[in-house]
What we know:
This protein is mainly α. The chain has one domain. The protein is built from four helices and no strands. Helix 1 crosses helix 3, helix 2 (65-89) crosses helix 4 (128-161) and helix 3 (95-122) runs antiparallel to helix 4. The chain is elongated, with a radius of gyration of 25 Å.
Amino acid sequence: MNACLHTLKPAAPKRAASEARRPSRASALRRHAPAAGLGAVIVVLLGLSLNHLAAGVSIITGCPPREALAMAVGLDLLIVGLEVAMVSTAGTRAYKPVARFANPALIVAFLWSAGLNGFAFSAASTVLWMTITAASLGATIPALIFAGVRSWAALTIESRRAA
């Protein structure tokens, strides 16, 4: 009478979306290593820039070292933060309102940072050609930070998308 009766097996429990396929550590490392390496280089450049910016501010204003360092941190981290905001909002509706204020602020912060870095680098030089070389070297540090942060932000965003 029950020749067609089949025993049903219980269904396997479904995995939660967060448990659904985790990438291996090696693939995560491959994806994030370029951004991490570039980030480490940017941190070193920021340290150098902060040191020279603080020295330049202190020489010019005669303010205490902690105030000079606060100004240096404000300038360089403003450049980093604004650039990350610009890259992370690219292609979104938020880009125009962010760019409206970020671009002018980036220009001003970049010019101050470059000028103070150049001044601090060249402050100890007495020979004209060495002063010019030192000032040029100091002024390029914010440009390197700017380019590095722009690349780092794009790499980081892309590595997160690939996950």
